[in-house]
Amino acid sequence: MINKDRLFKVTVPATSANLGPGFDTFGLALGLYNSFTIGRSDEMVYKGCDPKYQNEENLVYQSAMALFKKHHQDDSYAENLYIEFNTDIPTGRGLGSSASCIVAGLMGANLILDEPYDTNELFQIACELEGHPDNISPAFFGGLTVSTKTDTGFYCKKAPLSSELKFHVIIPGFEISTREAREIISDSVSLKTASLNIANSSILLLSLISGDAEGIVIGSKDHMYEDQRKTLVKNFDSIKISVIKNGGLSCTFSGSGPALLCVSKNNMLNTAKIKSHLYLLDEGWMLVNLPVDDFGAFFEIL
């Protein structure tokens, strides 16, 4: 039996990490959403969820249990939940699907417990579960975020975005796991590479705030992982060339990919020509215009 008097709906935006050189640091919330209805139940219920995720490995369930275990100070604590999934963020594309599940599970569990934890405490737990803050930060706080890990925990700052900028994602019909995309990257980089990425990240951040087109073109260049990750996406180069040729300022992997994030200014992007190019490819690519979500995750009491 489901406790209908205590159902909560948590909605979390899609997120795009890195934005080029800001590896594991930059994040952006986008107007595409996953919603999860969560409450206590006499039996475990997964509704609207792929059968392969209807088990204790489910990220929403795992995240909720992590908070319950912390709250009850009992690593063996478990209870049944009703979790209903209404998801528009595609999995395995680098658009923060996993982060949305973690954030929703923690927020839902916190609501069930009558909110003993504040947002920063939930943010810290979420980053620990995810392992890095680049998607978690914009999922919680919305907008453009810059995050890091300090000696005392994870830290996030939100930056204003120029209203002149437009964002599109190019999403393929295939998936790449985050694990695969991370394993292909070298464990170390040269001092020169690190210096270039630090410089470009700084230029990119300032340019996203001011709307400076030249700065976005220069600053979005990554020297650390793009050349390695693009070996997993055979049409990466041709798509990037098409985007830049048709008015885009940048075209970078969205998080671990394979989806791509495109930045343009005002209405300069010729989407028709890019779509024509994508149509010729054999991997189900589609171009989607997404607004920036400036609010982040929120909940409703049902």
From TrEMBL:
- Hey, which pathway is this one from? Amino-acid biosynthesis; L-threonine biosynthesis; L-threonine from L-aspartate: step 4/5
Q: What is the lineage of its organism?
A: Bacteria, Bacillati, Bacillota, Clostridia, Eubacteriales
Q: Boundaries of each GHMP kinase N-terminal domain copy?
A: 58-143
Protein name as it appears in the record: Homoserine kinase
Q: Which domain of life is it from?
A: Bacteria
Q: Does the keyword field hold Kinase?
A: yes
The kind of enzyme this is, by top-level EC class, is: transferase
Q: What is its EC number?
A: 2.7.1.39
Name any GO cellular component annotation.
cytoplasm
One GO MF term, please? ATP binding
Q: Which reaction does it catalyse?
A: L-homoserine + ATP = O-phospho-L-homoserine + ADP + H(+)
Protein's job: Catalyzes the ATP-dependent phosphorylation of L-homoserine to L-homoserine phosphate.
UniProt entry tagged with the keyword Transferase: yes
Instruction: Summarize where ATP binds, as residue positions.
Output: 90-100
A Gene Ontology biological process term: threonine biosynthetic process
- SUPFAM superfamilies recorded: GHMP Kinase, C-terminal domain, Ribosomal protein S5 domain 2-like
Q: Which UniProt keywords apply?
A: Amino-acid biosynthesis, ATP-binding, Cytoplasm, Kinase, Nucleotide-binding, Threonine biosynthesis, Transferase
Protein family according to the UniProt entry: Belongs to the GHMP kinase family. Homoserine kinase subfamily.
Its localization reads:
Cytoplasm
